[in-house]
Amino acid sequence: MADRDFLEEIEKTEAEARLLVEKAREEALLKRQAARQEAGRLIDQAYRKASSDRQKRMEEAQARHCELVAEAETSDGSGSLSISRDLLDQAAAMLAERIVSILEHR
C-alpha cells in the first residue's frame, strides 16, 4: 500500500511538473510575440522618423536653393549666372551623387 501511495504521489508530481512546463512554454510564447510586436512598432517608428527627417532636409535644401538662385539673379541684374563651366560640372556631379545617396537610403 505504501508503494502504491508513493507511486501515486510520483505520478501526481510528474503531472504537476508537465503542467508547469506547459504553462512556462505558453508564457514564453506570449512574451516572444509581445517582443516581436514591440520590435515591429519601434522599427516602424524609426522608419517614419527617418522619412520625416529626410523630407525636412529636402525642404531645407529646396529653400536654400531658391535663396541662392534669387541671390544670383539679383547680384548681376541680368538673371543669368556667371559661373565657370568647370564649377557647374563639379556642382552637378556632387548633386547627382547626393541624389543617388538619398534615393538609396529610402
SSE layout:
Blueprint: H1 2-76, H2 85-104
Task: Tell me what the structure shows.
By secondary structure, this protein is mostly helical. The protein has one domain (2-79). The chain is built from 2 helices and no strands. The termini are far apart. The mean pLDDT is 85.
Order of helices and strands: HH
* Proportion of helical residues: over 70%
Biggest pleated-sheet summary: none
How much of the sequence lies in strands comes to under 5%
* Total number of domains: 1
Poorly predicted regions: none
Distance between the termini: 75 Å
Number of helices: 2
> What coarse outline follows from CA principal-axis ratios?
rod-shaped
Q: Which radius of gyration do the C-alpha atoms yield?
A: 34 Å
Strand pairing plus helix content: what structural class? mainly alpha
Number of strands: 0
- Overall pLDDT score: 85
Features:
106 residues, rod-shaped
Summary of the model, kept short:
Helices cover 90% and strands 0% of the residues.
